[in-house]
Structure formats: C-alpha cells, structure tokens
Amino acid sequence: xxxxxxxxxxxxxxxxxxxxxxxGTGISAETLGNLLLAQFPGLNFTRRKIPFxxxxxxxxxxxxxxxxxxxxxxxxxxxxTVSDDPIRxxxxxxxxxxxxxxxxxxxxxxxxxxxNATHSAAxxxxxxxxxxxxxxxxxxxxxxxHDDGASLRNLAQSDLILVAPSRxxxxxxxxxxxxxxxxxxxxxxxxxxxxxxxxxPRPIAQFADKCFGLLSTPARLSQVRGExxxxxxxxxxxxxxxxxxxxEAMYRAHRIPSINSAKMSVEEMAAVIMQSSRLPxxx
Length: 283
Hints:
Bifunctional serine/threonine kinase and phosphorylase involved in the regulation of the phosphoenolpyruvate synthase (PEPS) by catalyzing its phosphorylation/dephosphorylation. By secondary structure, the chain is an alpha/beta fold.
C-alpha cells in the first residue's frame, strides 16, 4: 500500500529516492515510472532499477533496501510491475510509497475478460510467446545489418527506413523500434554528396514510401558531432546548418514525413514515427 508521505517540499534540493521494481527486466516499470516522474520537472530524483525479483526472499531484501532510504523528510517512491502475488505482497509491506503499476489494473482486466491472469513475469515481457520473441530477435538482427547504410540488401523487406544526416538519432531509434515493437528498420545516412541534387539517394529512392526523416537543430547537432570529432569541419555550426537545411528540403520535395529529434527521447520519437507511418506493433 502507499505509505504516508513525509514533509517533502517541492523546493527542496534533497533528491527523492526512486526504485523501479520488476520480476523481469524492469523496462516496463522504468518506462512507466519515468513517464509519471516527468510530470514533476522541478524535483530531483535518484533512480535505481531492481529487476528479476523472483522470490519472496529477494523481495524482502529489496523491501529492506527501500525502507533504509526513508528519512524524516524524504519518502522513497517504488514503482512496481511485479506480477507474482506472494512477491508483490511482500513488497507492498514497505513503508515507502508503493505504486503498483501492474496488480492495480490486473483485477479490472480479469473481470472484463472473465479469465484469471497467469501472473507470470514471462508473460509480461513476451518471453512465453515464441513467435513474438523470434520476431523481435529477427528485427534486431535486421536493424544491426542495415545500420548506417552498412547493407543495402533486403531493403524491400524493411518496415521502415530512417533517413537523416549523421548523428540525428537513427541508430538508437532503429534499435528501439526493433526491440520494443518487432519492426524491421533500416537506416540510411545522408552525406554532403547527397545534397548536390536534392534527389533521394539512389539506394533508397525506390523505397520513398517507407522512408521517415530525422532532423535536429544546428546547435544540438554541432554539439553531438563535436563530442565525436572535436575541431572538425563535420562538427561546425555552418556544416550542420547546411546539412539540416538540405535534408529538410529533400524530405519536403519527396513528401517524406520527418520529426526534429533535438528535444525528444527515443521513446517519444518511436511513438510519433509509428503513429505517423501507421506502423503496427509486431512485438
């Protein structure tokens, strides 16, 4: 249950300890928990993910660790997607604020479906579904093979082709879409030679309907490139501005949808891309 909140002050610099608890990898607990925390931008948090809580003994250890973070002025937050009832009951004994992201909604779903859930961590993460698991693994392999234009084979099999100047976020977005949504995503880097005519590069021209463009701001792109190649022409503000202008014009000319990745998380980018391109969640 949710413990009584301590006298925390929104203006306090003391960080609130946050724990993400899970019976599996903790991806869901971390993602959902951070989504809620993002609604409190003025507060400081320290985050710790504790995955694979698969026994009541481990749950007791975790509960003790959380309670040890309690102070007179700070109450920790514990976001949980643990599905096993006995383990969840142990965790609910914490004096911290326990936010059950799983069990609090499971009863409702069971009532609607008139079927008891398995309460299995494997089911929560899709491990029990061999076809879905294989689809994700094949999608990851495809994304790795077709990263940064490394391979142009089998582009016809791709669900999506991300196109962008270097360092706009193509690789992490491709991998996220593969891992989380089972999509086969290739990505193709735009280089200065590609901007001479304004045409789509020849290898991807026939797949324009699968393309999605990424942009950034000149300042952000220059900063990211500067960390990789400090002092290079590649990282100058002028070069970044040129490439982004030409890329945007290319997208517009060929009716390729695009987003600016400068202030977006990978999760946000993936959600916008899937919605804009009407891509199915295959995972």
